[in-house]
Every structure is written in structure tokens, then in C-alpha cells.
């Protein structure tokens, strides 16, 4: 049933998220600053704390992995005792949890501590003991550090552990990474002074930079001569216009290759990039729809019902009546009409609905009408995955079938 790909991909891995490229393209200035900030480690001096910030997909993690790999290699050569600990903070919301997770990384599986139940200072002390035992320089990389919000004690405590006398034989340093611009500004002044000793901003990539990043990866990923000339510049242009993210560009290229492969085409062309762009946009919208609350889902069901009977665009009042009916059907507490107006505008802001303001000629006022801005089939597919909605999506799907809409 399966045979290796002979036409499109020679090796898909370089297009994947966790592939570590040998070279980092188009980041010379940032890498230079970053390398300088890490230099004290090789000089046998206490490390600096470093804070990297920039939007998603602009190379913060890949640059960190690249430099720290080299640093570890060179530290070994010069007899420097260096340990690097990487702690993703995506599911962590406090300094306490960061400390427990670090502690458990350092301890063996048999002596892990539970994530609740200890006073914070006890966890910090246990962590200091573990760090002391390690000794040397310990660089702690906290990715997505913004998740800890205002609960930022650890960012002050850890870098000062040595000067405050909590540890004797170790120099801990923090590398904080964030794509939330407000996080840095909200840090307490003492934390900001400590953590942001060296700040490095990673700006979004422009189309030329993305062309070179994607070009390098494509060379490894696709068979020779498979990519038409316009493919990489177009993927780069789409991603630069939207987010400036290399991740988005790589996904686009990968998806375009997959589409070409499944269409049994021998080359990847502009049309594959355009279709890939549409598919990825739809995936993104669908993810957004899945993340709505039950109330949001019920409002979406209501607008979909009018879409099926072809009476959309439809006024708030009518949507509200249908919504009440559905809320009742699944025994959810129905919200008031004002809150449903808020939900409708939120759904429009997310791009799930379009809204039009109409003038009421008779009364002289104005009102809003809504309709779906997303393919009905995709909306129903997402809604049918949500068990809390019970049989509503099924009813909508049968109605759509009867109308010949699916
Ligand atoms: N300058 C670059 N050269 C080569 N590859 C890059 C470069 N910048 C980003 N990439 C690639 O783009 C993808 C996303 O990069 P990375 O994970 O470093 O972004 P990030 O800024 O850390 O994003 P996030 O904040 O979402 O974690 C990775 O696959 C990475 O290999």
C-alpha cells in the first residue's frame, strides 16, 4: 500500500517544526548579540540573563537551540562545567509550578515532588540544593515564559540565588523567551532589571528573508527540479504579508507539496501554494471554532440553521429566538439577548460570521444582520465533534442534506 515518495519529497523532515537546521538564515545581527550575551560562560564568568522576544515563528527557539548546542560543545572543549536545562512553560501558570517542574527535571523519577502541597519557599530550597549539586554554570531556558503572568518571583530569585547566598557552587542564568509583548512591560521593575539584562528582539521576517529560509529547507526536502520558480517567492510573500513567520511559510510549502503529491502531479506549482493557503486558513478557522464556548457554539448553530433554510442574513432577534430553543434543548442556561449580541460580534471579529448594518426605513433606526462567513460544511463538521451540543449538529446536517447543501 505504501511506497517511498519518488516524485515530490526527497526528505520531508526539513519542513517539519522540530527539524534543527545546520545554519540559521537571515539572523546575523540577532545571533551576534545573542552570542555576545553568552560569551561570559566561555570566559568562566557568571552568565548573563537573557530575554528574547518577538512574534511566533520568527526563530527564537531555533536560534537558542543552535547557539546553546555550540556553546555546550565549546564549553566541553575548554573544560567549562555547563549544564543547559530547557523548560517549556506552555502549561505552567506560576513561579511555583516552574520551580516544581525544574526540580523534577533534575531529580530522578523516584524522587519527584508533587505539583501541589509544598510552600513555595520549600520548593525553591529543594531546587537550590539540586542546582548546588550540579555545580558550574547552569543555563535555564524558559520558553513561553509569559504564561506565568504576574507570578514572576522565580525570575528574580533564580538569577540572584548565588549573590543572596542560597547556593554556593553554582551560577544559574535564565534565558526567557516570549512572544507576548505586554509581558515584558508588565514585569515588576526588579524582575525586569534582572531578567532583561540582555534583551534581544526578533522582528518578523520580510518576503526576501523568508525566500532564503524556505529556499534552504526546500533544497533538502524536495527532489531536484520539482519546485516551479514562482513557488517559494509566493509562499514567502503570503507568509510575510500575514505574519512574517517562518513556521507559516514552511507549513505552506509542506502542504503545497502534499497537495501536489496527492494530485499525482510531477511538479509543485503556484496553484498548489494557493490551495495550500486556503486549506491552512480553513484549518486555522476550524481550530478557532473548536475553541469557542458552548454559548458561542450554540450561536453558531443558530446562524447555521438560517443558512440552511436560506434566510440568512438574519437579524439578531431571530437568531436569539433560535438560540434560546437550542440552549433549552441541551439544558444549558440561556443568556440574555445583550450577551448574545456580544457573542455575535465576537464571532464576526473572528471571521466566522459577516455582519451588515441595515437601515430601518420605517422606524428610522438601524439594525444588524448576520450570516456565515465560513463554508457551511466546515462549520457543521466542527460542530458535530462537540458532544455537549447533543443532537443539534445531526439535525442541522440532515436539514442541510435535504436542502442539497452538503
Ligand atoms: N532564521 C531561520 N533559519 C532557519 N529556520 C528558521 C529560521 N527562523 C525560523 N526557522 C524555522 O521556523 C520554525 C519556527 O521557528 P521557531 O520555533 O524558532 O520560532 P519561535 O520564534 O520560537 O516561535 P514561537 O514563539 O511560536 O515558539 C522552525 O521550524 C524553525 O526551524
How would you describe this protein?
This protein has 406 residues and is of the alpha/beta class. It folds into 3 domains: 28-201, P-loop containing nucleotide triphosphate hydrolases (Rossmann fold, 3-Layer(aba) Sandwich); 206-288, Orthogonal Bundle (Helicase, Ruva Protein, domain 3); 292-402, Arc Repressor Mutant, subunit A. Helices cover 51% and strands 12% of the residues. It contains 16 helices and 8 strands. It has helices at residues 28-42, 60-77, 95-106, 120-134, 153-160, 181-186, 189-195, 207-221, 231-242, 246-262, 270-290, 294-308, 316-329, 337-349, 376-383, 392-402; strands at residues 50-53, 82-88, 136-143, 170-178, 198-201, 314-315, 353-359, 366-372. The strands form 2 sheets. A 5-stranded parallel sheet has the order 2-3-4-1-5, with helices on both faces. Helix 3 (95-106) packs parallel to helix 4, helix 9 (231-242) crosses helix 10 and helix 12 packs across helix 15. The chain starts with 27 loop residues before the first helix and ends with a helix. The mean pLDDT is 92. The site of adenosine-5'-triphosphate has 19 residues, from helix 2 and helix 10. Adenosine-5'-triphosphate binds next to helix 2 and helix 10. Residues 300-383 form the Cdc6 C-terminal domain. Involved in regulation of DNA replication.
Which labels suit this protein?
406 residues; alpha/beta; Rossmann fold; Helicase, Ruva Protein, domain 3; Arc Repressor Mutant, subunit A; 3-stranded antiparallel sheet; 8 strands; globular; binds adenosine-5'-triphosphate
